[in-house]
Design goal:
Blueprint lengths: L1 H9 L14 H7 L1 H4 L7 E5 L5 H10 L2 E5 L2 H23 L7 E12 L4 E13 L3 E4 L5 E11 L2 E2 L2 E3 L3 E7 L19 E3 L3 H10 L1 H4 L2 H13 L3
Parallel strand pairs: 1-2
Antiparallel strand pairs: 3-4, 3-10, 4-8, 4-9, 5-6, 5-10, 6-7, 6-9
Helix pairs in contact: 2-4
Length: about 230
């Protein structure tokens, strides 16, 4: 048991408790507390060379507690590590629906291909990072919401993102149940486009994409957007 604890410590796997003997229902109930604390990744039991009772397995399935079992320490820790990776990937994928990456765009007047929804225009990224799915607003026009970026092309090839200095063609789709805005009528190339940030989108961005938020230029731009959107 001491060897197992030392190995888990060296592998940076946190341990809330340890016990010798079979895994019982009460062990599962204890582990399920982490689910109440919104820590699904730690609602886990590592069963090393022990029996798992039928009641414990049934309770784990019902509560959502994960039990990994093996008589080899390395396999046990590998199972847990891969489980964490899968949860992180799943969480990051869900966060993409909420998180909004900061960007500032300038419309290129010589590249206006479609003025109505779906608006198809050429833009230059002036700050931040432009991603497919980004909702855009125009601060100079009372923050009108002109829709989401549904596609991105650079050099006639589809891309997922564009960085500062990139000139790309974007497609903006507007919700049918909202007012439809038109290039030339409601805004022009003199109006810059900004990603629509909210407190929830900013929180998701910081939690799941910290590597983006800590980039010096993007960090400074985020501070400006927080002030702009009064977050």
């Amino acid at each position: 048991m001491e060897a197992l604890l030392e190995f888990l410590h060296d592998s940076r796997i946190p341990v809330s408790g340890i016990r010798v003997g079979p895994v019982h229902r009460k062990d599962v109930v204890r582990a399920s507390v982490m689910l109440e604390r919104k820590k699904k990744e730690f609602a886990v039991i590592l069963a090393f060379d022990v029996v798992i009772t039928k009641e414990a397995k049934q309770e784990a399935d019902q509560l959502g507690v994960k039990i990994f079992e093996s008589n080899v320490i390395y396999q046990l820790t590998d199972m847990f590590t891969k489980y964490l990776e899968s949860l992180h990937t799943e969480g990051k994928q869900k966060a993409k629906e909420v998180a909004v990456f900061p960007c500032l765009l300038t419309l290129l007047p010589e590249f206006i291909f479609n003025k109505r929804s779906p608006i198809i225009i050429g833009v230059r990224v002036e700050a931040g990072i432009l991603k497919v799915g980004t909702p855009l607003v125009i601060p100079s026009k009372e923050f009108i919401e002109i829709g989401k970026v549904t596609s991105l092309e650079k050099d006639h090839k589809p891309v997922d993102e564009a960085k500062v200095g990139d000139e790309v063609c974007i497609e903006i789709t507007q919700p049918e149940d909202k007012q439809q805005y038109m290039v030339g009528r409601h805004f022009t190339h003199e109006d810059q486009l900004v990603s629509h940030m909210t407190s929830d989108s900013l929180k998701a961005l910081k939690e799941w994409f910290p590597e983006i938020c800590t980039e010096p230029d993007i960090f400074k731009f985020l501070l400006k957007l927080k002030k702009l959107f009064n977050i």
